[in-house]
Structures are given as structure tokens and as C-alpha cells.
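Re: that backbone. C-alpha cells:
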């Protein structure tokens, strides 16, 4: 032969000389072996078995040109193809064409699933089978000793065709199933806003796609533990925690490799209690990986089978990979939403901050208080607001950049370093100082300083607010003067109060705290005065006051309490107060509130007058008056009989014709004096009845008041023939129940009083008119008015000459006429009023009810 081919090593005999002795022996042996193989006939089936490694090596070189195969390791690349060659060789030896499909088993199916999982497309799967066939035939036919047997080669080609068909079929079915599952996962992801919604939907798709799955769960990595985020089926519970490297799930996370166990109930690798209690047979787990980053683990388990098919495992891995991408996308969306929310919040805060800065800039410029920003390094004014500049007589531009001490009066600059040091050492500092304006004038100012520090704690700048306190200083001086004046007034008030004969005390509102009392209070009460917190405390210390009838005063009944709480003004209320010696003395107590400008009660003042001696004198006077009234009654009653005898005798003498003229005049004088004495005695008796008998007795009978008044006017005209009287009756009704004699006395006394105290040429008028349930009589006379001081006492008894001097007349009576008029009117339930002016004269108005008042 002319050549010595070396199929295995590719070496020639010329290379033998280039090696050592031992190597030469090995080369010779190899050459001999190759020569034997070349000269000994060989069938294709034996060639497949003997040269399987050479075939796979040659195929690997060819198939690496496929992009999906370039990154695969050698073992994954070859997958089940070496085993496929062995099976094909066995089929060829048996020589049974037509039954190769069953003889190949599941090798093509498993290879198709693996290639689908490794990213091969269908064309690439077919290509690798084509390359394998080509490599086998090329290497076999290149041998000189290749022995052809058509029936065996037919089995080879049928087997390769069947492998291609099975792989294509399985690949297509698996890819369709996977695509459907992934499509459902993508659809579920579209309707899920976040991982919490996405994971349950993904697990439900998995469970529905892989029929044997009973339990599916997703665990996500949180620091160094895996936490169950979602579960479908009964097994693990949401929130369960598994540590890295522990149990079935922790092992998958730690190794980052899928793991399949076929007896989860008993397998020692499954140590999680929840998984062991789930009564699972097959359990498969896949890590959720994003590159080298572990995101979690996804599990699926079956109770019905101990074996999960390669296709189911592939589908599960594919769904896990898609889940990882979708989970990453959901987390990215969540981070994006969070970042967007944070950004929007930051933007809003920035807008608010900018708006706030603008507002503060406006405040800074418009603030009425002076504000200055001071550079702490150079102690210069960095910025001042218009108010600060105005109070110093500058513009803001003139002050900016000037030294801080330039705004202080020279005599006040010595203490400035001390205030600067204090401001730099604490959060804020306040002080008063003397500032100087541009024109040299001084003004006092109050300054509040806040220091601002950098990160190292060094003071960068200070902000000072400055207030001109000229007015405040003036107000403080005025306040001090006012306080001094108040204290002086208080002292004078205390001195005046101490000199007053009445006791005076003052209480604050609303507490009732007694704050001041005059010395006379101590004299009246017989005990020293001590300020008290309330009226209750004062009564507890000094005893309870009593009403004149002996009833104790309640707290709210006290005059001072009524003035404090209700603003009531109390005048001369008599009460009994206890003294230190245990006696009760009578006092007249008056009280009034003290109001501020708004009308609020701020205090109350009360006066106390000891009336014990006065009450005793009044009692003695009352007893004397009662004795005198009784004496008058007795004397008046006893004088009536002698007076009647005198009048009777005088009347008889006047009717005697033998009485000389001179004596007749004397007897006439005696008769007139007797009539006057009779009237006086009658008035005295009426007065006595009014004072001692409960009022002048009234005997009512039905009658017409016009007749009574007419009779009275007629009698007055007879007694005063030289005077002019007018009587006018208005239309109306004048019937009623009256005591005619007493009312005749009223008309007579009022008319006589008007005639007596009016000018001689002045008319006296009587007017009577109907006023519904009342009748009114008015008696009017012109002349000088009654003095205002006399009006309140006009109807007092024994007031003679009430209108003396009017018309030059004087009263010859006892001064009981108007008193009797008032008593008769009151006895009828009526009222009497008097008005007197220079223009209208004097009018007495009597109002009487027609019937007795109920």
C-alpha cells in the first residue's frame, strides 16, 4: 500500500521517528490496530457501536455551528443521542424494518423536550438529526472495509427518520402546550397590578395546565429566608418561612438547581412540616433566577403520581422562567409606581417649598418687625428687610454688607461681643440694646437672635428680629407712674374709708374674695378684718347674718352676693350681724357692682351702717307718738260733749229775738268758733282712726259720683261766695259703690285747699270723666307751683301751710285735710296724684274704682 491512514489519531509513520522508544511502541500498536480495522470488513451496525465516540465528536464539531448549541456543555449537547446510536445499532442487528418506531422508545421525545427547553427551534432540532446522519454515513463510507447491507442500512434510515418525526411531533406538541400556558400567564399578568395579584393567577394557570398538580406555591427571598407569598391547593400556608439551605425548598434556593423527589412523604430532603403533612408523592421545585440573582423558589406537587414527565417538568421550568420575568416586571412596575409617587410627592413638596419661599420672601419684605441676616464669620449684614432699614433710617441696599456694630450706638457696642457669644452658644438669645439711626439719634430695641450651624456645628449665620421698643419703654414708664398713682389712690381710699362713719368693704368678682375693709367694719363687727378667699369663708369665720325676723341669710341672698353675681343695686337693706361678743346688731347694708368699660362686673362694694341706736330711738319715738295719738283720741272724744253743749246754747241764743245786737255778734263768733273746733275734732278723730284703727272706715253704698261732687262744689260756693268755681262733667257713666260722706269730705278738702292757696282772682276748676272701670276727678288751680321738695310729703299729717305764701293765705286748720283725703282715697282702693308747674298750675287727680278691688 502506498498510504497508512490513521482514522483515530490522524498520525503517519513518518512521525514515529520523532518520539521516544516507549512512545514508538504505542504508535506501532495503534497503527496496527487501525490497519486491522481497515482491512477487516465492518457492518454499519458494528461501526455505530465501535465508532460512537468518533461519530459524536465529529457531529459535535458540526452541530456547534447552530447558535442555540454553542453555549451548551458537552453532556447537555449530546443529551440522549449516544444512546440513540446504540438503539439504532440494535435495531439494525435484529433486521426488522417497519417496527423501529417502538424500538426507539422515548429517546426522541425526551430529546425534543430538552431541546425545547434549551431554546432550539424546530428547524435546529431537525438539523442536528440531519448532521448526525451525515456524520455517520461520511465516516462509515470513508472506510475501505465498509460492508454494505441494504436491509440494515434501510433500518438505519427508517430509525433516523422516525427519530426526527417523533422529536418534531413531541417538540410541536410541547411547544404548543407551553405557548398556551405562557400566553395564559401573560394574560393573567395584564390584569394584575402587583405581585400580590399576579402570583395566585400564575399558580392557578399552572395547576390547570398540568393536570397532576395538586399543590403549587411561590416563595420569595426576603434577606436570608424564603417566605411563602402565594399558595394554590392545600399544602404550605401564606407567610410560612423556610431558611436558606434547610429542607427541600432551602436546598433548591441554596444550590440554585431544580430538584425532583418522587416520595415526598418519606424523602429525608423534604423536612418542611407543611410539605410532609401535605401527603404528596412527587414534588418538583425550580429556583426563580434572574441571571445569578435568586428571587425565590416555585414548587409543584402531586398526590396522584410519583413521577412527573419531562414535558411537565419542562413546562414547569418554562412557566417558572416566565414567572421570574413577570415578577421582575411587576416589581419593577411597583418600584416605578413607588418612584413616581415619591417623585410626585417630592415635586409637590418642591412646589410647596418654592411657594413657601415666595411667601416667606413676601413676609420678609412686608413684615413690620425688623429682620437682619448676619454673616457669622465677618459679622456683617448679609441681608435686611425694609422694616429693619427704616427703623435705622437707611435703605436695605445701604445696610447690606455693613458691619453689625454700625447699627448700634457707640456706647452700646461694648456689650455686643457678649451677646454674639451667647447667641452662638445656644439655640436662641434675647436682649435689649441701644441702636443708632443714620441721623445719629438713638432708640431702644429688643432683639431675638437665632444661630444657624453647618454640619460640623460651626455657626454660619445668625438671623435677628429687632423691634423698636421706644413706645414700650414709654408705656412701661407710664405703667410705673400709673401703678404709683394707683397705690397712692389706694392709700388715700383706705384713709378715706377709715374716716367714714359707715363700714365699707370690697369684694372681687366672681369669686367673692373680700380684699379690703375700712376700720369702721372692725368697729361694727367687733372683730379684726382678714381678707378671705370667698364669701363662704368669711361667713364661716364671722358667723351667719340674719333677717330682721331672725331668719338666717342664705349665701345667694346676701346683698354683696347679689351685686357680684347679678349686678343688683341694694339700698339700705336691714339685717342683723353677729358681733364678737355674741350679740346681734342691726345694720343697714347697701351694695352695688363695679363695672369695667365693657360693662363686666369686676368687683362689688358694700357699705354697713350701725342703726342699733337709731332703731332704739325710733322705737321710743314710735311709742311716744302712739301715746300722743291715743291721748288725742281720748281728748278729742271727751271734748265733743262740752262742745256740743256750747254749740246748742249758741244756737238757742241766736234764735232769741230779745238778744241785743252787740251780744248777738258775740254769740255768732262763739258759734263759728264752735263749728271750727268741731271740724278740728272730727279731723283728729279721723286721724286717730287712720293711725290706730287700721285706716278710716269706708261704708260703701250704690250711688252717682256726679251728685257727690256737685254737692261738694255747691257747699264750697256757699262758703266762698267771692270766689269763682267751675265744674265740668265729661260724657260717661259715674255709677258705682262709694262712701258718699267720705268722698264729699275729699271734694271739700281738695276744693278748700285749692281756694285757700291760690290767688283770690284765680278760678278753681273741677273736672270729672269716665275711665272705664274707674272714674277720675281733677281739681286744678293756677298759681305758684308746689316746690319739688314738698311734693313727696304733701299728704303727711300735721303739714300746715303746705302751700303757704301762695296768694298770701295761711292755714287755720291742723294740717290733716290732705292726709284724710289720701286715707279716704286709699280706703276706696284708688290713688291720688299731684302735678304742679308754673305754666299749668297745680292739679290733683283722684282715680277711684267703681267697685271694690278684689
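Recovered sequence:
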Amino acid at each position: 500500500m502506498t498510504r497508512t491512514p490513521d482514522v483515530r489519531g490522524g498520525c503517519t509513520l513518518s512521525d514515529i521517528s520523532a518520539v521516544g522508544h516507549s512512545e514508538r511502541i504505542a504508535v506501532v500498536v495503534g497503527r496496527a490496530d487501525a490497519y486491522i480495522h481497515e482491512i477487516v470488513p465492518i457492518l454499519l451496525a458494528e461501526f455505530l457501536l465501535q465508532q460512537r465516540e468518533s461519530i459524536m465528536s465529529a457531529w459535535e464539531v458540526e452541530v456547534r455551528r447552530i447558535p442555540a448549541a454553542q453555549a451548551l456543555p458537552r453532556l447537555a449537547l449530546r443529551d440522549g443521542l449516544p444512546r440513540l446510536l446504540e438503539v439504532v445499532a440494535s435495531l439494525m442487528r435484529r433486521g426488522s424494518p417497519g417496527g423501529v418506531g417502538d424500538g426507539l422508545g422515548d429517546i426522541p421525545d425526551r430529546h425534543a423536550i430538552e431541546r425545547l427547553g434549551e431554546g432550539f427551534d424546530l428547524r435546529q432540532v431537525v438539523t442536528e438529526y440531519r448532521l448526525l446522519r451525515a456524520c455517520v454515513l461520511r465516516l462509515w463510507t470513508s472506510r475501505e472495509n465498509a460492508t454494505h447491507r441494504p436491509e440494515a442500512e434501510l433500518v438505519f434510515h427508517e430509525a433516523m427518520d422516525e427519530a426526527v418525526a417523533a422529536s418534531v411531533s413531541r417538540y410541536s406538541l410541547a411547544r404548543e402546550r407551553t405557548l398556551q400556558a405562557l400566553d395564559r400567564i401573560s394574560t393573567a399578568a395584564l390584569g394584575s397590578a402587583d405581585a400580590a395579584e399576579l402570583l395566585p393567577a400564575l399558580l392557578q394557570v399552572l395547576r390547570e395546565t398540568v393536570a397532576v398538580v395538586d399543590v403549587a406555591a411561590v416563595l420569595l427571598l426576603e434577606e436570608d429566608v424564603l417566605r411563602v407569598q402565594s399558595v394554590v391547593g392545600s399544602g404550605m400556608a401564606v407567610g410560612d418561612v423556610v431558611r436558606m439551605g434547610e429542607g427541600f425548598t432551602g436546598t433548591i434556593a441554596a444550590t440554585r438547581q431544580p430538584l425532583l423527589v418522587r416520595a415526598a412523604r418519606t424523602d429525608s430532603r423534604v423536612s418542611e412540616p407543611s410539605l410532609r403533612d401535605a401527603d404528596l408523592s412527587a414534588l418538583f421545585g425550580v429556583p426563580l433566577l434572574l441571571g445569578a440573582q435568586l428571587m425565590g423558589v416555585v414548587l409543584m406537587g402531586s398526590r396522584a403520581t410519583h413521577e412527573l414527565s419531562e414535558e411537565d417538568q419542562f413546562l414547569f421550568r418554562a412557566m417558572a422562567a416566565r414567572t421570574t420575568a413577570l415578577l421582575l416586571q411587576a416589581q419593577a412596575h411597583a418600584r416605578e409606581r413607588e418612584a413616581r409617587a415619591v417623585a410626585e410627592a417630592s415635586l409637590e413638596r418642591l412646589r410647596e417649598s418654592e411657594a413657601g419661599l415666595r411667601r416667606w420672601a413676601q413676609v420678609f419684605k412686608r413684615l413690620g418687625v425688623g429682620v437682619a441676616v448676619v454673616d457669622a464669620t465677618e459679622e456683617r449684614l448679609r441681608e435686611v428687610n425694609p422694616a429693619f432699614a427704616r427703623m435705622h433710617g437707611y435703605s436695605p441696599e445701604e445696610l447690606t454688607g455693613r458691619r453689625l456694630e454700625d447699627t448700634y450706638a457707640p456706647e452700646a457696642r461694648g456689650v455686643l461681643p457678649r451677646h454674639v457669644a451667647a447667641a452662638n452658644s445656644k439655640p436662641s438669645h434675647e436682649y435689649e440694646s441701644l441702636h443708632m439711626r443714620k441721623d445719629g439719634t438713638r432708640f431702644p430695641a429688643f432683639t431675638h437672635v437665632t444661630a444657624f450651624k453647618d454640619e460640623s456645628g460651626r455657626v454660619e449665620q445668625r438671623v435677628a428680629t429687632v423691634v423698636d421698643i421706644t413706645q414700650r419703654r414709654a408705656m412701661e414708664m407710664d405703667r410705673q407712674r400709673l401703678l404709683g398713682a394707683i397705690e397712692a389712690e389706694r392709700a388715700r381710699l383706705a384713709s378715706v374709708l377709715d374716716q367714714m362713719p359707715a363700714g365699707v368693704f370690697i369684694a372681687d368678682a366672681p369669686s367673692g374674695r373680700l380684699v379690703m375693709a375700712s376700720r369702721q367694719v372692725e368697729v361694727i363687727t367687733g372683730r379684726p378684718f382678714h381678707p378671705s378667699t370667698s364669701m363662704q369663708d368669711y361667713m364661716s369665720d364671722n358667723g351667719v347674718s340674719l333677717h330682721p325676723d331672725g331668719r338666717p341669710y342664705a349665701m345667694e341672698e346676701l346683698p354683696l352676693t347679689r351685686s357680684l353675681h347679678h349686678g343688683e343695686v341694694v339700698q339700705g337693706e336691714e339685717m342683723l350681724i353677729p358681733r364678737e361678743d355674741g350679740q346681734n346688731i342691726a345694720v343697714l347694708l347697701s351694695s352695688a357692682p363695679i363695672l369695667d368699660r365693657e360693662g363686666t362686673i369686676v368687683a362689688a362694694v358694700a357699705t354697713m351702717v350701725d342703726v342699733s341706736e337709731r332703731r332704739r330711738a325710733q322705737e321710743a319715738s314710735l311709742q311716744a307718738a302712739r301715746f300722743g295719738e291715743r291721748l288725742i283720741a281720748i281728748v278729742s272724744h271727751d271734748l265733743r260733749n262740752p262742745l256740743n253743749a256750747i254749740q246748742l246754747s249758741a244756737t238757742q241764743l241766736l234764735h232769741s229775738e230779745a238778744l241785743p245786737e252787740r251780744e248777738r255778734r258775740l254769740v255768732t263768733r262763739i258759734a263759728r268758733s264752735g263749728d271750727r273746733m268741731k271740724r278740728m275734732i272730727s279731723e283728729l278723730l279721723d286721724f286717730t282712726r287712720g293711725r290706730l284703727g287700721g285706716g278710716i272706715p269706708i261704708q260703701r253704698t250704690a250711688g252717682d259720683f256726679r251728685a257727690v261732687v256737685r254737692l261738694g262744689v255747691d257747699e264750697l260756693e256757699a262758703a266762698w261766695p267771692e270766689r269763682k268755681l267751675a265744674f265740668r262733667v265729661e260724657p260717661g257713666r259715674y255709677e258705682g259703690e262709694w262712701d258718699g260722706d267720705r268722698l264729699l269730705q275729699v271734694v271739700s278738702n281738695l276744693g278748700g285747699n285749692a281756694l285757700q292757696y291760690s290767688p283770690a282772682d284765680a278760678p278753681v276748676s273741677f273736672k270729672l270723666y269716665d275711665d272705664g272701670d274707674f272714674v277720675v276727678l281733677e281739681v286744678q288751680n293756677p298759681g305758684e307751683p308746689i316746690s319739688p321738695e314738698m311734693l313727696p310729703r304733701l299728704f303727711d299729717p300735721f303739714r300746715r301751710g303746705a302751700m303757704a305764701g301762695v296768694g298770701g293765705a295761711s292755714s287755720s286748720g291742723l294740717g290733716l285735710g290732705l292726709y284724710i283725703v289720701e286715707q279716704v282715697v286709699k280706703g276706696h282702693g284708688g290713688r291720688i296724684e299731684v302735678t304742679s308747674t308754673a305754666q299749668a298750675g297745680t292739679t290733683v287727680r283722684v282715680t277711684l274704682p267703681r267697685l271694690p278691688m278684689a
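The chain has 25 helices and 25 strands. The first strand starts at residue 42 and ends at 43.
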